[in-house]
């Protein structure tokens, strides 16, 4: 019994798998990093340089950490921010993945120390975790400049260990589980008022304002809160079950798209392509192969 459990554990984490699921997540992560880079670009001076308000994670003291906790001149801040863009592009294209992932992780930590209130939300921690794991995963072993250079084809691939994909899947399931438990016990989530107020707060979008003007009965919001709780309770289970995965993917994607449309929190959309962590890489490879064939221009 113990031997069988150990073998199952080893196979789950260490078996060689195709890298296609990891490649999908790498491309999605790189695209998200670039989108976030442009989002913060107009605020580099105020967030990350000595021209803005200093809200560092710790109060700068004399010593070796003083330089890391002191906002640099604008020129240096812009240079470091430019390096972050190069690193994000390298991740997206799968070129020097380990190097650029380490650079991006280091810069994100540095910028967080300078302006921690912008990056320590749950989405920031999830993004950083995904960045670190993918940087060690071999996610550049297909659909990447690396394989184009080494094998002569973007679609060439090499097997990778399964553990990075499994760890990302476990993290996503744990995230949904934790959020579901919070919503089950937090006093503010015991009624629909929290959703009604969410339509008219500082995060709400014009579409949310329109819906708020419908004056829906509070019972509708109460039912929506219950539905959200059920969703967060089921996703950590259904995401692992191939028979029900398509329904879980659809429900999760609908939820995150809805949050984006109502609250403008588009950065959580990264979770949708991260669902690839739950899919057999062979199925992803077949899907990508079919997509490539069908999208290839026809010749006469």
What does this structure look like?
This protein has helices at 2-14, 20-40, 44-48, 74-93, 97-114, 122-135, 145-151, 163-185, 193-198, 206-212, 218-238, 245-263, 271-274, 281-295, and strands spanning 16-17, 160-161. With 300 residues, the protein is mostly helical. Helix 2 (20-40) packs antiparallel against helix 4 (74-93) and helix 11 (218-238) crosses helix 12. The longest helix has 23 residues, at 163-185.
For the structure shown, list the relevant keywords.
single chain, 300 residues, mainly alpha, two-stranded antiparallel ribbon, 14 helices, 64% helix
User: Which percent bin holds the helix content?
Assistant: 55-70%
N to C succession of SSEs: HEHHHHHHEHHHHHHH
Number of helices: 14
What is the general shape?
A: globular
Q: Radius of gyration from the CA trace?
A: 22 Å
C-alpha end-to-end distance: 61 Å
Adjacency order of strands in the biggest sheet: 1-2
Instruction: Determine the strand fraction and express it as a percent band.
Output: under 5%
Structural class: mainly alpha
List the helices and strands and how they pair.
Elements: H1 2-14, E1 16-17, H2 20-40, H3 44-48, H4 74-93, H5 97-114, H6 122-135, H7 145-151, E2 160-161, H8 163-185, H9 193-198, H10 206-212, H11 218-238, H12 245-263, H13 271-274, H14 281-295
Antiparallel strand pairs: 1-2
